């Protein structure tokens, strides 16, 4: 039994849903059943984990505490070649405040109650009891990982875990500074005939965003380039007519982050695509 599989089983036994990560802290790609978007491309948000695929294909939504699922079949093969263990904080009733640099850590010491702290490669994870909606880029160098998100397991850390403070919960109800720019809207003339920009047709726009999410999810290598090319395609079609909303951009960024991209990489790719198109 591999060390990662043993750790995963130990965590699962304590009620922490786990999933394997491959190199680069990236979840394993879609299983063959989902390769052509047969399951809809995204997990059922009203019933997370409802996908019945045989492998760990949906990142956070695939996290499980079932030892039979973890140690058998496709999952066992994934754990044998995994490079790290991840877990779904929200599924364990936890929230992780991911502090990415020294300035973010200093802010946390000043504004948040002390709690269990886990060192990371560049900063610290502060763990609190209680779940909440996840949010990226709530402050410079600060992400909130809880429901519909995953975090790398780096050990138990030090300190006593405190209850989730209102100061952190507030990030889910207040509008934080955007982690990425809203696309620049350019006024264009309405196409003749229909009297309405075709991009505003819900089916046309929804199909385009869904295809973009699928393209990102299907990337098995060169994820950075795949994300950039997808952002470029979306902006080339919808970037000048004002159709894209913050919800659409969030969906694209979420798909990219599920493949291991950071909020900063998403922002850079989005800005580079806008620059390429002159937006």
Which descriptors apply to this entry?
four-stranded antiparallel beta sheet, globular, alpha+beta, six-stranded mixed beta sheet
Structure description:
- The protein is of the alpha+beta class.
- 37% of the residues lie in helices and 14% in strands.
- It is built from nine helices and ten strands.
- Strands 4, 5, 6, 7, 8 and 10 form a six-stranded mixed beta sheet that branches.
- Residues 40-49 and 175-196 have low confidence and may be disordered.
Topology overview:
Blueprint: H1 3-13, E1 18-22, E2 26-27, H2 67-71, H3 73-80, E3 84-87, E4 94-99, H4 102-111, E5 116-119, E6 124-129, E7 135-139, E8 142-145, E9 151-152, E10 162-163, H5 166-173, H6 202-218, H7 223-238, H8 246-258, H9 263-277
Parallel strand pairs: 6-10
Antiparallel strand pairs: 1-2, 1-3, 3-9, 4-6, 4-8, 5-6, 7-8
Helix pairs in contact: 6-7, 6-8, 7-9
How many extended strands?
10
Query: Which sheet architecture does the biggest sheet show?
Result: 6 strands, mixed
Q: What percent of the residues sit in helical stretches (DSSP H or I)?
A: 25-40%
Outline the low-pLDDT stretches: 40-49, 175-196
Coarse shape: globular
Q: Report the β-strand fraction as a percent range.
A: 5-15%
Spell out the helices and strands N to C.
HEEHHEEHEEEEEEHHHHH
Radius of gyration: 20 Å
Give the averaged pLDDT, no decimals: 78
Q: Given the helix and strand composition, which structural class is it? A: alpha+beta
Summed up, the helix count is 9
Distance between the termini: 52 Å
